[in-house]
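User: Let's play a game. I give you a shape written as tokens, and you guess the letters that built it. Ready? Here's round one.
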């Protein structure tokens, strides 16, 4: 097996995860781009979390005195979502496949379900 080194710009923990994934999974060459994007999403999520800590939390007060969400909150959320989707796309979540392809329907939300 040929070892593909992680891109140089990845953080040490993202690079370590890259190596772990390639050790444990067989990926096609085109999957390496998805793996890189997942590593970058992880890094962005961590950077946003660090920015929130450094700048005092989830909110700030603007010039009018209105409490607003810090922009890094959205960055962290978006990066977390991207990471989760890329991990799923790469099929790295190793849990057993669900028997049901989707969550069960809520009968109370179905048309005519409450009609008696």
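Assistant: Ready! My guess for every position:
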């Amino acid at each position: 097996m040929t070892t593909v080194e992680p891109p140089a710009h990845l953080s040490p923990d993202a690079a370590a995860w890259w190596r772990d994934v390639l050790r444990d999974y067989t990926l096609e060459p085109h999957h390496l781009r998805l793996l890189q994007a997942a590593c970058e999403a992880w890094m962005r999520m961590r950077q946003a979390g660090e920015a929130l800590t450094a700048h005092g939390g989830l909110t700030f007060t603007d010039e009018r005195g209105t409490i607003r969400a810090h922009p890094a909150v959205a960055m962290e959320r978006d990066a977390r979502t991207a990471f989760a989707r890329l991990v799923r796309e790469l099929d790295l979540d190793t849990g057993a496949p669900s028997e049901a392809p989707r969550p069960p329907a809520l009968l109370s939300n179905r048309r005519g379900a409450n009609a008696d």
